[in-house]
């Protein structure tokens, strides 16, 4: 990975946007005072790549001028140029974009659906995670010994990742996955073979079951044939009985028909006798009928005379109808107008009552408007108080964020001073006596106490303001509702006033017009002062009718009497018909009486024959068995036979299928042998791909080269006084075991002998760390397809004397051809001129700034 450019803003100590162009140098020193922001540049790189830095989440944001941080890192890797843009806004999720530059210069997005998935893609692209990257390429501040301080097992894991041997773990997982699939297939084959063996063990039982079912099927067939013969015989008897039943039904129908003919003739005889009696009664009333007929003729003559007189009367009556209709129409019009005026009168009465209610509502509305207006006038004062409290709280919270960061830095500085036992200041590398250290710690603690007091005062202020803000906010919110209520009340008041004015105008209009018209209509109707011409014309027609002398009532009475006696004409015709029908009726009655006797004799004979035939049929039907029961028995036998036939087929199939089962057994046995061999081969591959297999061999091959490179660098750093050796195996504590356990121990040889790395400290330990880490990076850079092409050393000179620092610089120049970029961070002024280029970092009131000084 070769850095090209780094842009950052709002990140840690960098308030304003800053850009670092790495293309201007290959080896450079990043210089500046303590706390200026040198290490923050490296934090920006690791945060952009992996989302990790010395601080996490919102702590990386410089909150003094804004609430967000952004880093854009462009780098080259294996022939491609990549760009990562990561941003963080306070209290919001991180934003991450990952792009690669195409041949035409355009950037193609490689961002995934989520930040986590995008980070995983970045790790896959670089083929290393944050831990591997920093262990192999970064000498971070206070972490130069991170690789050496790892447990032996973790050293081996990190070395495996750095060497790119994690691919063998992928191979091992693939072999393990295939082995598991093969084992699952083997288990399935064994289960199938077990089922097959169980099935083949049932052969004797299956053949015996088949013979039993075949015998039962033969017996069922014989029983079915016997039942079919019985059913056929009984069906023949049933057919003969059905024919007998048809003959009985025929006789019953003949008897019923004969009795019906007798009854019809009997009814006709009774009807003719009734007609004869009615005709005889009419003949007996002949005198009365003839007198009524004569009276009707006299009445008809008088009605005809009076009809002629009424013709003139009707003419006058029709002429009289026109003025009567005119008078009635005019009265109806006046009454309709009066009804409408009465309706308006009732509405005006309701409006008068409503006006009184509206007056009361308007008075109440005016009082409410005054009350709401008085309350709303307080809102400006409350808003001003609330804004003042909000500003005080924001200032206190912003100051507390700054105080928290400064107190954390103080705690780190105090802790480093307390843990340091040397004569050199761990913060600046200057000489430091125990008394000065304690005095410096006391000063820092006093500063921390003062900051803590100020921090707690701000917290109390924020707590108090929270309570006051809640009260003020509640009052302001209430007043916002009051403003809404005021607007609504104003609208209601305006509506009430408009309604009141409208009703007042309607009442005034009624008094001027409707009330006057109501009095006038009552006078016209009560005095009948209307339709004067029609009333005069009606008087003339009434006088003419009185002169004619026609009595309409007497005419109507005479007409009704004539209509009442008009039926005498029909009675006279009926009398004449009755006299003519008496002789024929008497002859017909005599004939019907004779025929009725013959019908009675015939009906009795048919009824006797039917009774005898019905008795014989009933006796024969009782002796016939139940055909439905016989049929049900036959169906049961047929169903039983069919079931046995299916069972025989199934049993036969179970016997025949054993042939295919034996063939399947042979195929599965061969498949089992093949699968067993494949499982054994995959287990061998798993062991070969495991950490004790090929990766271990590759590490064993790489360690001598790393060891040689480390000793070459360590020889320069220690003037030939120290050397390093890696041990990959160690004896178990149990002396009875012949094998050894895997490890990665670091053994250091010097004038005092050979000791483990953990026994060294101070400047000697740093030289060993530096030699191992530099050797590791150098070896990786020399290997084909190397992924580490940048070396970063952060504050690695503070623990060395002048001679040791010179040797470290010589070692860096020694490996310079193996890396594309080497960055050395230091705050020591005497080392700046030892490097061809410088990246000068300075802390200003506007935040940290960066300037590249290239040769």
User: How many extended strands?
Assistant: 15
How helix-rich are the residues, as a percent range?
Answer: 55-70%
Give the number of helices.
18
Overall 3D shape: flat
Question: Whole-number radius of gyration?
Answer: 64 Å
Structural commentary:
The chain has 855 residues and is an alpha/beta fold. It contains 18 helices and 15 strands. α18 (802-815) links the parallel β12 and β13. The mean pLDDT is 79.
Short description:
The protein is α/β, with parallel strands linked by helices and 855 residues long. It contains 18 helices and 15 strands. It is 70% helix and 12% strand.
Feature tags:
855 residues; six-stranded antiparallel β-sheet; six-stranded mixed β-sheet; 18 helices; alpha/beta
